[in-house]
Amino acid sequence: MSDGEVDLGRRRMLTAATVVTAGVGAAALAAPFVLSFKPSARAKAVGAPVKVDISKLELGGMLRVEWRGKPVYIVRRSAQALDTLQKVTPELFDPDSDQSDQPEYAKNATRSRDPELLVLLGVCTHLGCAPEFRPQVGSPGAANELVGFLCACHGSMFDIAGRVFKSMPAAANLEVPRYRSIAGGWLLIGADGGVS
Predict the structure, then answer these.
(1) Which residues contact 63 (CB under 8 A, 6 or more apart)?
(2) What pLDDT does 133 receive?
(3) Which pLDDT belongs to residue 170?
(4) Beta partners for residue 67, in sequence order
(5) Which of 95, 99, 105, 108 is the most exposed place for a label (fewest CB within 10 A)?
(6) Would you give the distance in Å from CA 26 to the centre of its chain?
(7) What is the 3-state secondary structure (H, E, C) of the chain?
């Protein structure tokens, strides 16, 4: 081969090797960048559903758990508490929960899948305070004997279904998160679906 001739086979091999090396280098540089878009294990855990044992929750009692950094109230309502729901309807701002944040299965008078069991975010819709649970009809400090929750920060009152009374600082009912019952007396907060 003379000085003027080009070895095309060698040139193709060197070109292919250069392209492969550049591709591997680009993939190695891009991998950490692409993986940074994937949520961390901690971020996944924060938004993950929470499994709660409600088998020992007594009638008239409340269980408080945390989901996504917010308190969730789980209340087992008595027949007496459920009877108050119809009595307060004319006094409520949004009795049918048309303007409230909740799943479709909670758009009923009890705002729940099971009338006895209430699941709410324990965050006042006014400024985010944590309303106090008033389990007894006629609880001290409640202006209305039919109040279920009282926000001590600004005085917003909610019935035992988390519906806000008229003329309160809070303009919306307490939020009902997605949830479902699972076998063995457990509740899954943060996931929809049927009973399993």
Answers:
(1) 52, 54, 57, 73, 74, 75
(2) 86
(3) 85
(4) 70
(5) 99
(6) 40
(7) CCCCCCCHHHHHHHHHHHHHHHHHHHHHHHHHHHHCCCCCHHHHHHHCCEEEECCCCCCCCEEEEEECCEEEEEEECCHHHHHHHHHHHHHECCCCCCCCCCCHHHCCCCCCCCCCEEEEECCCCCCCCCCEECCCCCCCCCCCCCCCEECCCCCCEECCCCCEECCCCCCCCCCCCCEEEECCCEEEECCCCCCC
Residue 149 has φ and ψ, to the nearest 5°, of: -140, 140
The CA–CA distances, whole Å, from 118 to 58, 159, 180 equal 13, 12, 11
Rounded CA separation 4/133 (Å) = 93
Residue 118 is predicted with a pLDDT of 92
Distance, C-alpha 109 to centroid of its chain? 21
